[in-house]
Amino acid sequence: MQAIQHYGFYTLAFVVALGALVAFHEFGHFWVARRSGVKVLKFSIGFGPKLAGRQVGETEYVLSAIPLGGYVKMLGEDLSDPEVSEADRHRSFAHASLLKRTLIVSAGPVFNLLLAYVIFTAWLATGAPLFVPSFADLTSNVETVVAGSPAEAGGMRAGDRIVQIGDKPIATWQEMTDLVKRSPGAPLKIVVERNGRTEALTVTPASRKEKLADGTEVAVGQMGIIKANKAVFRSDHVLMAPIDGLDATWGWIKLTVVGIAKMITREISADNIGGPLTIAKISGDAATQGASNYLFLIAILSINLGVLNLLPIPILDGGHLAFFAIEAIKRQPLSIRSRELAQQVGLFLLICLMLFAFRNDIVNLWFK
Predict the structure, then answer these.
(1) How far apart are CA 50 and CA 197, in angstroms?
(2) How far is CA 332 from the centre of its chain?
(3) CA-based nearest residue to 305, from 260, 359, 360
């Protein structure tokens, strides 16, 4: 029974977090479409079969069975849409000006970034510090070796990248610290990458006491290496929170954008990509730590959702914006056939990415 309650709580935390992100994203599209004079036929949270719905005015508001996204259906999303009558032509999306279409499509990601900004600003207004991690969290690069430490004695140097401990490949700082903490006083065979070559080292972590959440002390291993520091934002006055919130939001946006770029160039392992199971776990973990941590996680996920949706991949918002950019250059829209083919490719890429993320979920949550 306790296990069922545990998984039920984590599932609820995941559904609520994702539902909030999707609702805010789709509301951005909806609100700007309405303000632009475009008729919105349906506003759906979730995909698949309809669980509940209500018609309010000209829009049907729907809650659907699969809580992994949502959509806003506008009148005449394609020039060939048979639903558009001559009388409604001026209210169709496809016949709206290029500027209006661009604003409508951009609004979803922008509203996600705005949600994060509001949460960060509220967080800073309480006087609490707000951290933006460095890329050192996503790599196993050694920034500093402490003088006189076990790492120095074992031959480790600043700039080394730890790639293996024992027979276990290492991709992130967390993977490395987890293994080292479990090995106080035990010699570890460590492989590092240095100047394009691998070096085999033996390091014996020192033993130190660490207090657990329940107050008990346990012995953990420590090598004496340091990663890059996190950026810390703190508002000295409540009136400064909106400005500091903007800086913190921009810091997280940069972290996300550069992180994606580093994954593409393989500077950061793609094993860091998490899917729905990982999101469910971190949502549940954050919810157990309190409302503030849960809201903070929602802000981070909102930034990720906003940035990812701006990638120029057909089927995502960024893909539509790329189509509009081509239209602006050519002074005519892409053919319907070209857009359909591009969206099929985009859908294939998105499915591949989702399967890869799900594979990472299984490996990281059950086999590491």
Answers:
(1) 57
(2) 34
(3) 260
128/251 same-domain check: yes
Contact 19, 38 (CB under 8 A): no
Q: pLDDT by residue (tens digit) across 175-233?
A: 888 889 989 999 999 999 998 899 999 999 998 887 765 667 888 889 988 876 666 77
pTM reported for the whole predicted model: 0.75
Which residue type is seen at 257? Answer: V
Nearest to 19, CA basis, from 51, 55, 41: 51
Residue 216 domain boundaries: 137-226
Q: Are 343 and 317 in contact (CB under 8 A)?
A: no
Choose the final residue of a domain: 226, 247, 281. 226
Centre a 10 Å sphere on the Cβ of residue 276 and count the other Cβ atoms it contains: 16
**Taking the CB of residue 287, how many other CB atoms lie within 10 A of it?**
20
**Does the CA dihedral 276-281-284-286 come out positive or negative?**
negative
Contact present, 286 and 301 (Cβ < 8 Å) = no
How far apart CA 211 and CA 205 sit, in angstroms, is 18
**Which amino acid belongs to residue 216?**
T
The half-sphere exposure of 216 on its side-chain side, counting CA atoms within 13 A, is: 4
Which of 153, 308, 314, 134 has its CA nearest to residue 222?
153
Of 226, 244, 261, the residue that ends a domain is 226
Which amino acid is residue 14, in one-letter code? Answer: F
Angle at 79 between CA 340 and CA 41, to 5 degrees: 95
Three-state SS for 253?
A: helix
Q: Measure the CA–CA gap between 316 and 105, rounded to whole angstroms.
A: 9
**What are the catalytic residues?**
26
235-275 confidence digits (pLDDT tens): 878 888 999 999 899 988 988 888 888 788 877 777 777 77
For 236, the enclosing helix (H) or strand (E) is none
| Amino acid type, 305 | L
4 phi, psi to nearest 5 deg: -65, -45
Same domain, 329 and 215: no
